Amino acid sequence: MLIQTEHLIKLYGRKRALDDVSLTIDAGQVVALLGPNGAGKTTLLRCLAGINQANSGKLLFDGETFSRDRVDLRARYHFVPDFPFFFAEATVLQHIGMVLKAYSADQPGVEERVIELLEDFDLLPLIKSSVGRLSRGQQYKVALIAMMIAAARAAVTAMLIVSRSRNSPTRMTSGSSRSVARRPREKPVTSIPTSRWLIVLFLSL
Fold first, then answer.
1. Per mean pLDDT, which range of 9-18, 41-50, 111-120 is the poorest?
2. What is the structure's pLDDT at 184?
3. Which residues contact 2 (CB under 8 A, 6 or more apart)?
4. Smallest Cα–Cα separation from 151: which of 109, 99, 116, 95?
5. What share of the chain is helix, strand, coil (3-state, %, to 5)?
6. Which of 35, 32, 33, 24 is nearest to 1 (CA)?
7. What does the alpha-carbon distance between residue 148 and residue 152 come to, in Å, rounded to a whole number?
8. How much is the average pLDDT of 173-201?
9. Which residues, including other chains, have CB under 8 Å from residue 44's CB and lie 6 or more apart?
10. Contact call for residues 66 and 59 (beta carbons, < 8 A)
């Protein structure tokens, strides 16, 4: 997916969170947003996801003007925020199933990929546990697994964006790191580095 922003401005009261942001991200490109707290990284991601609306400027996906009511374009965007949303009483398996169904990614054979990722992320023993009872790091892994599969099985070119703040580290085991870096049959997958000041745009072809 080709992503373009043209002169985006986002205001919170008198504060400019985004100030005339213009950029182009080619399909398959991996882009890292670096900066301290308050630099506008998360605001840009939320505008790309249609969660926030810019005060002015233009956002285009594959040359088409994006707006919050373009559900067809929003369906191609897979966003894992710093604080993912969960139904607290749902089990790990139920939550992943609901996300895959919402993205029409609950296709035959997906069960094997779900089990593979749960094992790689050390979550397989917890599949019947309520998401609300997991640690924050474990909850984030559940959200990441669901979106990784949904993006990889998208019917059209998809984009996966991962947001992590410096105050919310997730320990990646060797198995989970390999799983994120692995290129599954459906779509290419790129590893996600994290650091103190890093929020990553992770794009699949």
1. 41-50
2. 45
3. 24, 25, 26, 27, 60, 61, 62, 63
4. 99
5. 30, 25, 45
6. 24
7. 6
8. 43
9. 5, 8, 18, 21, 33
10. yes
d(CA 148, CA 204): 10
Backbone angle region of 10, left / alpha / beta, with phi > 0 → left and psi within -120 to 50 → alpha = beta
Average pLDDT over residues 55-82: 84
Residue 204's identity, in one-letter code, is: S
CA angle 87, 88, 91 (to 5 degrees): 85
Query: Residue 38: what pLDDT?
Result: 83
Q: Name the pTM for this structure.
A: 0.70
Cβ of 87: how many Cβ atoms within 10 Å? 12
SS3 182: coil
Contact between 151 and 78 under an 8 Å Cβ cutoff? The reply is yes
